C-alpha cells in the first residue's frame, strides 16, 4: 500500500485563513515527519504561496478551472496555481462541481502543469467514471455527510468499498481517498481497512479547538 495520505481541506473557514493556516501547516509538517504518513493542506488560494515557502508539505489548490492561460478574467488556471507553489489540486469538490467535460479538461491542464491530482466524486458511479482520467487520487465524499460530523467510515462503509472496487476495476494504479465527517484515528483506520489510501477532511481539524491534537489522533492508529 502507498504511504497513507491525509489531506486537509481548509475550505473558506476563517479558522483556516492566513496565520491559522500556517499554524495547522506547522503541526501537519511535524506530525507527518514523526510518523509514516503524508499530510497535505488545501488552503485558500492566497495562502498557497506562504505555505509553500515556509513548510515542507504537499499544498493543494481547492479547485482549478478548465481554462488555459490567456485572455480570461477571474479564472483559476492550473499553471498559475503551480507557479504560486501548489504541488497539487482538488478537482470537482462537491462544493465546486464541474461538468464531466470540464473535469476532464481541468484534469488534463493540471497534469500538464505538473500538479498532483485529486478528483472528488459523490458516489460509486462517478468514482468509476473519474478513474478513466487516471488521476493520482479519487476522493469519494458522500455530499450528505460533508460537514455533518457523522463519519463516512461508520455511516456508509459500503460506498467506500464499492468505490474502491469501481476505481480499481478501471485503473489499478489510481489511489482512493474517502472523506466526509472524518475526525478521529478510528475513522482513518476504518477507511484504510476498507482499502483506501487515506482521507480527505476539513471541519474535524480546521474547526477544532486544538487542531494539532486532532492531527495526532488521526495518525494514531495507522
Ligand atoms: O468536504 C470535505 C473535505 O473536502 C469533508 O468535509 P468535513 O470533513 O468537514 O466533513
UniProtKB/TrEMBL annotation:
Major place of residence: cytoplasm
GO terms of molecular function: triose-phosphate isomerase activity
A GO biological-process term: gluconeogenesis
CDD domains the UniProt entry points to: TIM
EC number(s) from the headed UniProt entry: 5.3.1.1
Keywords, in A-Z order: Cytoplasm, Gluconeogenesis, Glycolysis, Isomerase
Keyword field contains Isomerase: yes
Pfam families documented for this protein: TIM
GO cellular component, one term: cytosol
Subcellular location: Cytoplasm
Pathway: Carbohydrate biosynthesis; gluconeogenesis; Carbohydrate degradation; glycolysis; D-glyceraldehyde 3-phosphate from glycerone phosphate: step 1/1
Subunit structure: Homotetramer; dimer of dimers.
Family: Belongs to the triosephosphate isomerase family.
Protein name: Triosephosphate isomerase
Organism annotation: Methanogenium organophilum
Gene: tpiA
Amino acid at each position: 500500500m502507498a504511504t497513507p495520505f491525509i489531506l486537509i481541506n481548509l475550505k473558506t473557514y476563517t479558522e483556516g485563513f492566513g496565520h491559522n493556516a500556517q499554524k495547522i501547516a506547522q503541526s501537519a509538517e511535524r506530525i507527518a515527519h514523526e510518523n509514516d504518513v503524508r499530510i497535505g493542506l488545501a488552503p485558500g488560494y492566497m495562502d498557497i504561496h506562504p505555505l509553500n515557502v515556509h513548510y515542507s508539505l504537499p499544498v493543494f489548490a481547492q479547485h482549478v478551472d478548465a481554462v488555459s492561460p490567456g485572455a480570461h478574467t477571474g479564472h483559476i488556471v492550473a499553471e498559475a496555481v503551480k507557479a504560486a507553489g501548489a504541488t497539487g489540486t482538488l478537482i470537482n469538490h462537491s462544493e465546486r462541481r464541474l461538468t464531466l467535460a470540464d473535469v476532464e479538461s481541468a484534469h488534463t491542464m493540471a497534469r500538464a502543469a505538473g500538479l498532483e491530482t485529486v478528483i472528488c466524486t459523490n458516489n460509486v458511479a462517478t468514482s468509476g467514471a473519474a478513474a478513466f482520467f487516471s488521476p493520482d487520487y479519487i476522493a469519494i465524499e458522500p455530499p450528505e455527510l460533508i460537514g455533518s460530523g457523522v463519519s463516512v467510515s461508520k455511516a456508509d462503509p459500503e460506498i467506500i468499498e464499492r468505490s474502491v472496487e469501481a476505481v480499481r476495476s478501471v485503473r489499478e494504479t489510481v489511489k482512493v481517498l474517502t472523506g466526509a465527517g472524518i475526525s478521529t484515528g478510528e475513522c482513518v483506520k476504518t477507511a484504510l481497512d476498507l482499502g483506501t489510501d487515506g482521507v480527505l477532511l476539513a471541519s474535524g481539524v480546521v474547526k477544532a479547538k486544538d487542531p494539532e491534537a486532532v492531527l495526532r489522533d488521526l495518525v494514531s492508529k495507522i
